[in-house]
Every structure is written in structure tokens, then in C-alpha cells.
Design a protein that fits this description.
The protein is built from 13 helices and 19 strands. The protein has 387 residues and is an alpha+beta fold. The two termini are 35 Å apart.
């Protein structure tokens, strides 16, 4: 029986330890925090969106870059396998809007508990408050790890599951990048992804706290479309956030933007411009004797009305019956394309995931083993934990 050391007690580390122990290996997991699953605990606002229930083909369509690298991993252990694993481990799951899968309890602690119990049943030794300082190598082969304080632990293989740089307070401080560099592997540019976007100007600050549902956005740079999507978003004091924006940010990061980037918001995506113009015509007819500023309650949340009044260019004191066809048409166009200038993303410490890192060219996609250093296996949360 060979000994496997797993570095990192997050989602990927725990699952890797369970898989290794299930195949008959002696497994020791080292976690530098006082408990496992520290980042899992805050995932999904504490509810932990375990996976997504869509088809495997749709999963691949939502991988931002290099989906082919994940074929072996996903087909070997797909999202349905993730659900089966947790159900059998005593953590019942439920399906919500958007095919999102959560624990029935809505508590991330139940997901963590299921992992803990499974590791205990398999006899995995979990060492908490145990930071790994470096890896031991002999002739391009992993031979063990060096713990904080200098103690060395030998093994036959190491699984590196230290995470990226996002949410450093949970332990993701980039240790793994140093480890792989010292093993001769390449680390590509590291960028924040699934992260809020910063917007120029004061408009978003005025809308701070406003949440919009069922809207669509288009993100473009120098007339090149980067992303189009539909969903929910939130205005903040620095710009925009929410599920729709977080997804858009991954495409923004991938594009390595240099120059002006535009975010176009469609407030009424279910209606074409012509349909929206007809809707406005009906609403204006019903409110024809009101001032324009008092006729928009049925179209927007209260906080958005002053902004849309300004954007329209129409005198707010003007009677609705006096608004021209051209003014109404321009107002409809504004509703279909409210434009913001993106200045960048928030810092990586606010990102949900890290984009970039270990070069996949140097990793065997079938086993996740390093091509440069034998018995060195790389794990990242995203291929096990599709949200």
C-alpha cells in the first residue's frame, strides 16, 4: 500500500483524499487552517451551491477556457456523480432555479460534515493547523513534504490542492504556485475571476443597493463582444456585482482587457425595441395628463427612476401627452441599452476563483499528474465543484 499526502483541505483536497483512500492507499491530509472546508463554509452565502444539474454538454459550454482539458475529469466524475456522492454520504440535496444544486438544509456545514465523515470512515488522517512549507523531490520525483518547522514527511505521491489566491483569509495565499515553480513547472498570469466589476462615474454609487432581476447584459471591448447573458445583478458603491456580473467578469479577465470596455444593460430583455415602444405608448396614454417624472412607477424600481429621467433627456416636468414620438423612441432605446464604462475588476481577494495558474500544458488531463515531476498531482476546485 502506497502513502499519498494531500496538501489542502478544501473541496478538491477532501475529494482527492477520499478517492485515493477508496483505491486502497494510505492517505494523510495536511490543512493549515483550524478546520477543513473553510472556503466551502462561505460558498453560496453559506448555503453551498454544490454543483449544477444541467447536462454535461452544457457544463462544457460554460467553461470559460480550455474545456477540452476537462473532458477526462468530467466524464470520469460528472455533476451527477457529485450529487450521488453527497446523497450517499448523508447530505440530501435539492434543485433550484437555474439547475443549481444545494443541500436540503441550506447549510454548507452539512456538506463539510459529509466530507469529514467519509474521510473518517476511510481512515484518512487529517492534520489540522499543519502548514506545508515545501515539497521534497528526488530526480524529478516527489518524495514527500516539509512541514512548517522543518519536519519532513515522506510519501509515494503528493496531491496539491492549495487553491488559488481568492479569499486569502480562508487560506488561499498562493503557496501552491511557489511549490510548482520550484518543481520546474510554469505558472501563467494570475487574474481575479467571478469578481465584481468597477464602473467609471457616480451612476452606480447613486444606485447602490439596487438589485435587478431578469435583465440582460452585453460586455464588449473595442466593438468585440466578450459576453452576453441574462439573470440578476446588483449595483454597489464601486460598480456592479451579482451572479450575472460575476459570470461576465470571467470573460473580461480572459480577454486581458487593454482599453475601453462597455457594459450595456437591457432593462426589458423580454421585449424587442418595437414591442417596448408600443408598451410605452400604452403606458403614456394611461398617464397622459401626468408629468413625465410621475409616470414611470410601473416601469422601474423607485431608485432607478431619477437616473432614467436624466438618461432620457426629457424634461421631467413635461406632460406625458406632450412627449414626441422621437422622444419616446429614444427613451425605449435607452431602456434597451443603458451603458456603463468598465474600469476594471475588484482585487483578487474579493474574487470567488483565480483565473490562470498552473499551465495545463504541463499536466496530464487524464490523471492530473505533472508531466515534469512524477507522482505530483494537481487538483483545483473548479473541475470537481462545478457551480
Amino acid at each position: 500500500m502506497s502513502r499519498v499526502i494531500v496538501v489542502g483541505g478544501g473541496a478538491a483536497g477532501c475529494m482527492a483524499a477520499i478517492a485515493a483512500a477508496g483505491n486502497g492507499h494510505e492517505v494523510i491530509l495536511y490543512e493549515k487552517n483550524e478546520k477543513i472546508g473553510k472556503k466551502l463554509f462561505i460558498t453560496g452565502k453559506g448555503r453551498c451551491n454544490v454543483t449544477n444539474g444541467c447536462s454535461i454538454e452544457e457544463l462544457f459550454q460554460n467553461v470559460v477556457s480550455n474545456a477540452k482539458f476537462l473532458y477526462s475529469a468530467f466524464y470520469g466524475f460528472d455533476n451527477n456523480s457529485v450529487c450521488d456522492f453527497f446523497e450517499q454520504a448523508g447530505c440530501p440535496l435539492k434543485r433550484e432555479r437555474g439547475e443549481r444544486i444545494f443541500p436540503v438544509s441550506d447549510h454548507s456545514s452539512d456538506v463539510i460534515r459529509a466530507l469529514e465523515q467519509k474521510m473518517k470512515c476511510l481512515g484518512i488522517k487529517v492534520c489540522l493547523n499543519s502548514a506545508v512549507e515545501n515539497l521534497l523531490t528526488e530526480e524529478n520525483k516527489i518524495s514527500g513534504v516539509i512541514l512548517k518547522g522543518g519536519k519532513q514527511k515522506g510519501c509515494d505521491a503528493v496531491v496539491l490542492a492549495t487553491g488559488g489566491l481568492s479569499y486569502p483569509l480562508t487560506g488561499s495565499t498562493g503557496d501552491g504556485y511557489r511549490f510548482v515553480r520550484e518543481c520546474g513547472m510554469t505558472v501563467t498570469d494570475i487574474r481575479p475571476a467571478l469578481v465584481p466589476l468597477e464602473i467609471e462615474g457616480e451612476l452606480c454609487r447613486r444606485l447602490q443597493g439596487l438589485s435587478l432581476k431578469n435583465v440582460s447584459v452585453r460586455l464588449s471591448c473595442q466593438k468585440k463582444m466578450l459576453y452576453e447573458g441574462f439573470g440578476e445583478m446588483l449595483f454597489t458603491h464601486f460598480g456592479v456585482s451579482g451572479p450575472l456580473i460575476l459570470t461576465a467578469s470571467s470573460y473580461y479577465a480572459k480577454a486581458k482587457i487593454e482599453g475601453k470596455c462597455l457594459l450595456e444593460l437591457d432593462l426589458k430583455p423580454a421585449l424587442s425595441l418595437e414591442q417596448l415602444d408600443k408598451r410605452l405608448l400604452r403606458d403614456f396614454e394611461d398617464n397622459r395628463k401626468k408629468q413625465f417624472k410621475n409616470a414611470l412607477g410601473g416601469l422601474f424600481p423607485a431608485k432607478l427612476i431619477p437616473v432614467m429621467l436624466e438618461q432620457s433627456g426629457i424634461d421631467p416636468e413635461k406632460k406625458v401627452q406632450d412627449i414626441t414620438r422621437e422622444e419616446r423612441r429614444r427613451f425605449a432605446e435607452q431602456m434597451k441599452c443603458l451603458t456603463f464604462s468598465v474600469s476594471g475588476t475588484r482585487e483578487i481577494k474579493e474574487a470567488i476563483i483565480t483565473q490562470g495558474g498552473v499551465s495545463t500544458k504541463e499536466v496530464n488531463p487524464s490523471t492530473m499528474e505533472s508531466k515534469k515531476c512524477r507522482d505530483f498531482i494537481w487538483q483545483e476546485n473548479y473541475w470537481i465543484w462545478m457551480r
